[in-house]
Amino acid sequence: MNLDSSEKIKEMDPQGMVEDLDTFPDQCKEAVSLGEEIKLPYDLEEFDRALVTGMGGSAIVGDLLARLLDFPVDTNRGYYLPKSARPDDLLIAVSYSGNTEETLSALKDGQRRGMESLCLSTGGKMEKYCNRESIPLVKIPTGHQPRASTGYMLFPLLKLFDEAGLAGTIDFAQLNEEVEGMADSWNSSVPTESNEPKKLAEELAGKVPVIYGTKGNTSVVAYRWKTQINENAKQPAFWNVFPELNHNETVGYELGSELMSNGKVITLKNGLEIERNELRMKIMEDLFTDEGIDYAIARAPEGDKFTKIIGQVYFGDYFSVYLALLNQVDPSPVELIESFKARLKKEG
Ligand code: PA5
Questions:
Q1: Which of 37, 48, 91, 180 is placed for a possible disulfide with 117 were both Cys, Cβ 3.0 to 4.6 Å?
Q2: Is pTM beyond 0.85 here?
């Protein structure tokens, strides 16, 4: 598969995942307006914490908010809210389809506990429930995969929290300009020789990626890269974070070189690592060299926290789609997820 052939790309990507990535800057801009338009019946400053509930491509929004906001955020992935959930928390339920059973159940759990809620969805059962219970809903556009709608789900929330003074200072215009610059460098019309996500996809083709981030910093990016490789490229990938990986996973490299002959470790760096984790990464690089483990470092784009985190997520989105094309698979459909959900419905 030639990543520089627009005809081949169109053939392998009939649902236009690449186009969704190319237009991500516009998606983010449109999503900021969705945040401006919604009127909330409460003040965000009144809450002690935001508890984001969702699954898969919708839940990642909670992890991103937790990393980006100057406000406590936790993410819940499951049927019920954690024991710590209480009316002083704002419950934010995110479901692209609006039909994910775990998210709907957790939303109802929040209502039972007397919590205020905010929902984000394209519609589905979630919209009906919001109408019945008078819960504000940010209605996002349909027609994309949930994981290709991260901008639509993240930016309205960033805008709302920014307006409430709980996001530090976000310069949305500047951020958008930077994301546009990334799209200019990474889009499919840029040839492989000068296109970093295409280059990384070529490097990773045929390998099992193991992505390492750092706790509280790039852990969200590492997890997103792993799940994007799974869903877009339809292949296994693993992730972990410093410092925890030095307390167990590291030992796995003792016998690693043979078993890892098809693996490649990617360490994410963005310059916001704490010093001890930087040192840990350096020591691990020496270990990988000694043990003959294939590894590489992926650096985030330059800029502030928002540019670095959103930019590195965007980079992962691009390279995982390019990897899908090299794997000769359509990046959009997630048939195994769909058939799993269908069977669960039929048998339950
Ligand atoms: O990427 C996907 O399709 C999944 O991870 C979904 O996001 C997940 O199954 C949850 O569905 P939804 O986002 O519609 O709530």
A1: 91
A2: yes
